[in-house]
Amino acid sequence: MIYYDFGFYLLLATLVTGVVTLIDKLKWRKEREAKGIEYDEKGNEKMPMLIDISRSFFPIILVVFLLRSFLFEPYRIPSGSMNPGLYDGDFILVNKFSYGIRMPGFNTTIIPTGSPKRGEVVVFHPPHEPQTAYIKRVIGEPGDRLEWDRGVLTITPTCDDGEVCQPIVIRSELVSDEAPELVPQAEVFDLYDESLGDNSYQVLYLDPRARARQSLKQSWSTVVPQNKYFVMGDNRDSSMDSRYWEFVEEEALIGRAAYKWLFLEFTDEPVIFGKKLPKGVSFARVGSIE
């Protein structure tokens, strides 16, 4: 599958400017030299616009392409599904080499470097919206059996030798009946501590007194297929995730959410062209993502 994201168009720009620059070096400049090179009043060589633009921007585009495609990619949190750890307006860096060096635009693994672990926050292309990037927390790895019973999660992994491993039981612990102030409708959510793998973080559940459908009142079970992952948002009752559209394909992974580096607060109502505009900037939330 081709993912028509910014990385794809950056790949095209790199290829076009690179090819034009190369052809100019091997052929077109020699032809200009044979005819006599012309210079402008500043002493710069006159050349066709496409060649001039390609030669000027190719080195810059190449560096941005390499950094963004194989090291770190910036990403803006688009919703509150990862509250309270990540807010709508947080800007983060996605580690692109954690889960394999991948071909930009096609997301095919070139060099395997690792795989997601339970508890890590990942950015990926969901199966129902493959041209969009989502961010959620990995709950189940390939082969895991997941059982959810009114807030208690039991993960039964499959061992390498085919035998069943010891189950992992996750119980969230109530911290407060009040959510942080940046959480929309904070008064109807309760704050819990949770740990999974090497990660300790906080999650939100709707207050038991709320009449809406609640995760704490549900029960379900599933088995994660090979080469796929089960993900959930930390805002458990305000997240469209694997509980609704099932699993994330290994080939759809973009990278691991690594660092928060900026937070933008937006206007409450749209200001121009139906869009909300930034009204405040903060670096207070800078740090690694648990």
TrEMBL record:
Q: Is the keyword Membrane in the record? A: yes
Q: Which organism is it from?
A: Kangiella koreensis (strain DSM 16069 / JCM 12317 / KCTC 12182 / SW-125)
Question: What is one Pfam family matched by this protein?
Answer: Peptidase_S26
Q: Among its keywords, does the record have Protease?
A: yes
Q: What transmembrane ranges does the database entry give?
A: 6-23, 56-72
Indicate the principal place this protein occupies in or around the cell.
Answer: membrane
Q: Name one GO cellular component term.
A: membrane
Q: EC number(s) in its UniProt entry?
A: 3.4.21.89
Q: Which family does it belong to?
A: Belongs to the peptidase S26 family.
**Source species, domain of life:** Bacteria
Q: Which residues form the Peptidase S26 domain?
A: 52-261
List the active-site residues.
81, 136
Q: What catalytic activity is recorded?
A: Cleavage of hydrophobic, N-terminal signal or leader sequences from secreted and periplasmic proteins
Which keywords does this chain's UniProt record carry? Hydrolase, Membrane, Protease, Transmembrane, Transmembrane helix
Q: What processes does the entry annotate via GO biological process terms?
A: signal peptide processing
Tell me the compartments it is located in.
Membrane
Q: Which GO terms describe its molecular function?
A: serine-type endopeptidase activity; signal peptidase activity
In its UniProt entry, what is this protein called? Signal peptidase I
The record, for SUPFAM superfamilies, names:
LexA/Signal peptidase (SSF51306)
According to its record, how does it sit in the membrane?
A: Multi-pass membrane protein
Q: What class of enzyme is it?
A: hydrolase
